[in-house]
From TrEMBL:
Primary localization: cytoplasm
Protein name as annotated: Proteasome inhibitor PI31 subunit
Function, as annotated: Plays an important role in control of proteasome function. Inhibits the hydrolysis of protein and peptide substrates by the 20S proteasome. Also inhibits the activation of the proteasome by the proteasome regulatory proteins PA700 and PA28.
Membership in a protein family: Belongs to the proteasome inhibitor PI31 family.
Natural source organism: Silurus asotus
A biological-process GO annotation: proteasome-mediated ubiquitin-dependent protein catabolic process
Residues covered by the PI31 proteasome regulator N-terminal domain: 12-145
Region entry Disordered, spans: 146-191, 227-274
Amino acid sequence: MAGLEVLYTCVASSITSPQDAAVCFIHWEIVKSGYKCLGTGDEPIPGEKKSELLPASWNTNKELYTLRYRSNDDKSNLLLKAITVDSSLIFNLMVNADLYEGYKVTDLTVNVSDYVNEASLQSFEGVYKHTEDLVRRMKSSLLPAVKEEGSVRKERKDRFKDTQSQPDRDPLRIPSRGPPASYTPNWTDPLNPFAAGRADLDPFSGTTEGMIMDPLRAGFPRSGFDPSSGIPGVLPPGAVPPGARFDPFGPIGRHRPGPDPDHLPPPNYDDMFM
């Protein structure tokens, strides 16, 4: 209770209700936990300074008390509101701190007559009762828990590890009944299976073809055409190296094949006057 008596003596002349005395006690416990008061109202006022005392006009409105606080290290802010409901006070505390990554709201409902003697408002020695119980309730329900910065960083790191360790999951996929089976592709080529096109750099190396889907060498029926022998009238023999990839760029042979029943007939082909 050290310091509370000095504070209460300073504001005793302005205390006119048990609710005022209860708010004064809550204010001092907040100051003891490492905060100082900035002023009244929801919005800051230019030029305001931190103080352990209650600001002027702190109890003008008996239905709603509003006080703002800032921590001694300037890392967090508090907004305290106390609402009078019959013989009770509902305390609502909003904490804005970097350690909480945003806002945190706590509340506490106090029956004023359980902790304040209305008949002794002007005497500090007899105004409060059962203060140990009120302090215990404040620490468990209202005041923000003190967290070391190192422990908060460890919690963030652990949460990051948990999110990284979870595998990607498709919510539309039917889950398997057994453990996931590992599949290793059977690469018959001793070379790197992802080196597509490597054989094109050296067609005389004797390795497999570089073309992934080669219609002349990928297991499809061969047409009997060897590009290394040349194309009469188009390419001389030897123009295409043996084993090199070659895409025919025209019909093979001197004569074009005639139309077959699958060809689309020309328009008006059956008109004898055309």
